[in-house]
Design goal:
Order of helices and strands: HEEEEEHEHHEEEEEE
Radius of gyration: 15 Å
Strand content: 35-45%
Shape: globular
CATH class: Mainly Beta
Strand order of the largest sheet: 3-2-6-9-10-5-4
Largest sheet: 7 strands, antiparallel
Helix content: 10-25%
Amino acid sequence: MASVVEEAFARRFPEAVVLATTRSPEGKPNIITLGWWMRTSHKPPMVAISVAHKRFSYELLVRTGEFVLVIPPEEWADAAWLCGTKSGRDVDKFGQTGLKALNADKVSPPLIEGAVAQFECVVRAMVPTGDHTIFAGEVVAARLGPPKPPLYSLNRSLRLGGVRAAGR
């Protein structure tokens, strides 16, 4: 049954890829790549992200209760790959990727220069779901960037790339 369940989940692709930034209480910024996220409310505006318990970002989210949800442009595929495969415990992801951190308006975690859109969030609920926790964040500020195609994951091997309409 497990293989059927995993194959069924694999058929959801393509899926949008997002980044989330966090910051440790000591001031260290971090970035995680996520495929599991959604909008959850209009009033107040809220989003949710699902983060594995073993991730450094999980620890920071629990400790600080803030994150920035970042919609990356498709040219950030390599940066997204690094941010999803390396731990912020060991690597300075801003330094390694060349992404530039910007001060957020309402939360401590940084924005990222050049993102398509960004949502500054304060965690309002945490729901444990097996080996992940869903963090529901109220959007307290947002910022628009250049209107570029967002990044999508095309298949379960985690190859990243933009998706375009057929014939374009």
